[in-house]
């Protein structure tokens, strides 16, 4: 019975190779949250100093992207401070001039 079973067996023992793991240096770092955090800080400073509402809103957008792409192990204080700075830029720009935002183009 084993010889009949072996003739119908589709597996090929001569094609079996042992798995060799590639040398991977751990998970790759994604620089997107860091770049968005830096852009958020720059836009919020431009929004605060130059009273540009669109810069303040871009800072909020960049802060959201930075927060959503960050890992749980990263420093949450820096992300939270960037988010609060961008919110304060929006608030201060609307306190200075409560008119609706005019697009820069």
Automatic annotation (TrEMBL):
Residues 1-30 are annotated as: Disordered. Keywords: Membrane, Transmembrane, Transmembrane helix. The keyword ATP-binding does not apply. The chain crosses the membrane at residues 41-67, 79-96. It holds the Pfam family ASTER. It comes from the Eukaryota. GO terms for biological process: protein insertion into ER membrane. The keyword Kinase does not apply. It is found in: Membrane. GO terms for cellular component: endoplasmic reticulum membrane. GO terms for molecular function: protein folding chaperone. Belongs to the Asterix family. This is Protein Asterix. It comes from Potamilus streckersoni.
